[in-house]
Amino acid sequence: MTAPAQPRSLRLAAIVAIVCASGLLTGFESARNDRSPLSDAAFSAAPGAPAVTLPTRVLEAASVYVAYVDRAAAVSPAFPDGDTIAASLRATEAYEPRQMQEGMTAYAAVVALQDPNFVAAVRAYGADPTQRAQVAAAVMADPRYAAEFQGADSAAGLIVAALTDQGRRVLETGKRVKQAAYDVQHQKWSTQFVPDRDGRLALAKSLSDQPLPPPPEGESRMQMASTGAMPLMVNGSVNPGPYSPMVERALAVAAMAALGDGSNDFSDQLIALLDEPEENDCLHSAKLNLYQCLAVAKPHYEDVFCMGQHILMDTGQCILKGVAPHAAAAAVLLPAADTTPAPGKKKPVSRTKKHKAKS
User: Fold this and answer.
1) Can you count the helices (H) and strands (E) in the chain?
2) pLDDT one-digit tens code per residue, 167-215
3) Measured between alpha carbons, how far is 190 from 312 in angstroms, rounded to an integer?
């Protein structure tokens, strides 16, 4: 017979007790004691829990991710010439997978902070410094514990809704661009070979290794969104779980911010909390498929195919996979990479092995 589930508050209390007994609190208190005087003043300026905040690096990562999604989803499938294809290719292939993955989780944390019930429930543990440190240590020890706070189910619902919308936008744009690879073939220029094909492939690899700078005022917009000064326009329904690892980590980062332990003094800890290996693998696989596609693509229309399938569609599917629990993730795995374009006006696809994200 299955034992009845404990209330969230009792489960969280048990978690904190385990963390205290294990000695994990000691390391977190050490980080707290290493704060600068300015940080200490800000931390104790207001009564009760410290202000909700996130480190600059987390906010910048979120802003880079959002800017990329907006840029990728805005690509037009109407290509008048090879130069336009090359420009769109450069704009969409320019992301470093780890930065993209961290930014995705960072943005999801900002989304979670839009839920007032979740924030209020977490901040109830933040007024007392000792209790705050205990809860923060529990969350850092295992990000899944953040899902035990009241309101976590509605915050998770916002995350899933927001990132599902973003993933679908990029995916649908990719489908339109991929279709353009067929439609454009009636224009003679599209069948001409791309100049400097080796240089084009080298550029794709170079752009994929370079972290992107945050957009102007991107960090400040994410900061205002995280504190409620300029809320995001997101909606979602309650999601009781199970949650993907990325959603769990986003809830954990948001919980740290709500506790008041999201200042720049805790930047390294929270950046580490953003890392989600499976999502990172998915984005790396998309890049590998892109390189294989570009290595064999010759005419311009085949570059359009590579862009539609292996930049936009694959990346969109990775975003969708990031918010899908493991049981549903198989439905959004990357398709088989078929990247050797056929001649003439046949389907511009090929024969290469599929790269799957680890599961």
Assistant:
1) 17, 0
2) 999 999 999 999 999 999 999 999 999 999 999 999 999 999 999 999 9
3) 20
Tell me which amino acid residue 101 is: Q
354: amino acid identity, one letter: K
Per the confidence metrics, is the pTM higher than 0.85? Answer: no
Report the 3 state secondary structure along 209-264: CCCCCCCCCHHHHHHHHHHCCCCCCCCCCCCCCCCCHHHHHHHHHHHHHHHCCCCH
- Going from the C-alpha of 99 to that of each of 61, 146, 254, 316, 321, the distances in angstroms are 7, 23, 18, 16, 17
Listed range (30-34, 75-79, 155-159, 279-283) with the worst mean pLDDT: 30-34
* CA nearest neighbour of 171 among 309, 349, 331: 309
Nearest to 283 by CA among 105, 97, 99: 97
As given in the structure block, the two tokens for residue 40 are 């200490």
CB neighbour burial string for 26-46, b if at least 16 within 10 angstroms, e if fewer: eebbebbeebeeebeebbeee
Model confidence pLDDT, tens digit, residues 64-112: 999 999 999 999 999 999 999 999 999 999 999 999 999 999 999 999 9
State how far the Cα of 141 lies from the Cα of 149, in Å rounded to an integer. 16
